[in-house]
Amino acid sequence: MDKRSMKVLEYDTIVKMLEEEASSQFGKKKALNIKPLKSRDEVLKKLKETSESQSIILKKGSIPIGAAYEISPYVKRASLGGILEPYQFLRIADTLRTSRRIKTFVKDLTYAPIIQSLTEDLFILRDFEEKIENAIISEEEISDNASSELKRIRRNITLLKEQIRTKLQSIVSSSQYSKFLQESVVTMRQDRFVIPVKAENKSSVPGIVHDSSASGATLFIEPIAVVEMNNKIRELRVKEKEEIERILTELSNEIGEFYSEIKLNEEIIAEVDFISAKGKLSIKMKAQEPALNNELFLNFKNARHPLIPSKDVVPSNIHLGKKFNTLVITGPNTGGKTVTLKTVGLFALMAQSGLHLPCDYGTSICIFQNIFADIGDEQSIEQSLSTFSSHMTHIVNILKNVHDDSLVLFDELGAGTDPLEGAALAVSILEKLRNFKVLTIATTHYSELKTYALTTDTVENASVEFDINTLSPTYRLLIGIPGKSNAFEISRKLGLMEDIIKSATLHMDSDSIAMEDILKEIEDNRKSIEDERNESKKLLEETQRLKNLLEEKETKLEAQREKIISKAKKDAKDILIEAKLSSEDLIKELKELKEQVDEININKKIEDSRKKIKSSIDKYSVQEENLIKKSKSTKRIKELSPGDNVFVSSFGKEGTVVSIDKSKKEALIQIGVMKMNLPYSALDIKEKPESQTSSSSGGKSYKVKSMDIKTEIDVRGMDLESARLEVDKYLDNVYISGIVSVTIIHGVGTMVLKNGLKDLLKKHKHVKSFRDGVYGEGGMGVTVVEIK
Q1: In this structure, which long-range contacts are made by residues 84-89, counting pairs with CB atoms below 8 Å and at least 24 apart in sequence?
Q2: For 141-157, how does the pLDDT look when each residue is reduced to its tens digit (9 = 90+)?
Q3: What pLDDT is recorded for position 175?
Q4: Residue 248 domain flag
Q5: Which residues define the annotated binding site for ATP?
Q6: Last residue of a domain, which of 593, 612, 627?
Q7: Binding-site annotation, residues
Q8: What's the pTM value of the predicted model, to 2 decimals?
């Protein structure tokens, strides 16, 4: 691509915007190296990547590209036998963790096959991550848990220190030595425990002098009684250092074996971050993927220049390459002609870089092998070239290198010299490009170019609209309509005397006057047609509004009708249940009579009553059966599964399947607090409305998810806000699942993450209490939480 043209089209500003959206140094570096591509297949793939990234962000959120560092130099050094520093291991662990989280996040995103395929090659070293987490606390501190030997050495050092302090404390508090001391304190000099002795009493306190105060009045003496213990501590310090070096050497040797895998991980993280940045930029610009065509034409629907604020930009519909290959744009200065040129050129560069375009659906663009733009006043002082000479030098270069698959953009073609000669040159240049069938857009003030566009095939006029009443441009591009010179009208509006304006018209030739009159008539007709079209559009919108209103009323009436029918069915079922309950009371009374009268007579009466009851029940059962038949909400059972919702017709109630016995074709059903075994024939599957089904499905998913909740969550490497959100969501799930105690792994570091999470736990509604981890649980690097 022509670098000068890319610069004047402000492509570098788009690149900078893309870089700002990247999260890692890998991604930023890759964004800064983006270039327009010339292969249709490559461009199509890059556009699809951006679309996948956009979909992921909108559906699931940004890909978790957290802490990621350029660790391959460290690993390379380790592979050559070098020993890495603790801070380097921490960066390695962070980057490995980022790799793992990216792979897990993208794993099930079937709608993003390109990104999914890319992340499949990420190398995971979970065990090594845990080794580093257990061994290294901070950039300078190795954990006691790094090895049993290191723990033993440090424990011995701690015990010896206590013994020394105890011994020295007894010395400084004794009556024998306290009078010789400057202060009754124990301090340290050169990593050894000492006491401050007055200089004149040096001989009274036997020991080794390690330091003195600035005035020389105080000597810091190590008493003979603790010299041997201090020596032991020094020996242990040497052993501690040797053990730390051994641990770091072992870790270095282990990671050094994976140099090629780590290098590949860096490249994949960079690519994923770069693709994610493209998706973020697309959403920020409210952009979408354009269609790619093979016919060398472009069609932009409501194209918005990406560098103009959305509240100020005026969308343009621009098309070129089908009915005409050359577009001549006329209109007033600051009317939007140059913005139109830059929009077209920048859109072409962005699309061929795999970036989405801020435009509407239906936009189509082709692949250009080169894009040339001659825009702006670039007078060269060093070469002593005039504005015209500077532009002409560039135009000569364009004409030498242009091909039929190029895009050429001229701003004020032929300007900067005699108008007649400039117009003639402009027409000749456009004609040359037209014969090459090159897609060309040129802006101009020359009337000769308007005439050329009106009289030449495959050349079309366009103009930027100007409101003569407000004396300001509207920035709308009107293709097919040449721009009218508004000099006289503007002068008249500004108060120039009418006799001067009339005199000026006498100096114009008749052809020019006729052309201006024609353009005025065209402009008036266009405005009239546009006003009528806007009126028709308003009538259509009002008609559509009324139609929507009627449809809404009809929907409400249908809902009311369904509600009335549903209430009638419920009332009928209530009557049936009441009848059954009355029957049971009657039978109970008859049984009581049985104990008081002759058994034969009462049995007869009972039988008569049973017949009467049966008749009553049959009557209501028929009503119930008719209601059930009319309802479309149930269907016969073919097979059942635990958790299914069923309708128990004999009770007129809904229940849930607890368990099934396929051999007996029976199911244990729960209705409220009651459970009973019922045959399949007594049950109906309850069909739920779509919204309910969806909800039920979601509930089921949530239940399964709750059952899978782990008793610990690892938020190391996250920023505080992300960690708070993760922990808050995790505590909600833990509470629902019934877990009573969980562990939050946050590490130590700068304590920001730990303290921030503690603030959250203090106020959380599900937290009963919390505490720091103890030895064996993770120590200061974890917090144990009790759930209410």
Answers
A1: 84/248, 84/251, 84/252, 84/255, 85/139, 85/248, 86/136, 86/138, 86/139, 86/140, 86/141, 86/142, 86/248, 87/139, 87/140, 89/132, 89/135, 89/136, 89/248, 89/251, 89/255
A2: 899 889 999 999 999 99
A3: 77
A4: no
A5: 331-338
A6: 627
A7: 331-338
A8: 0.60
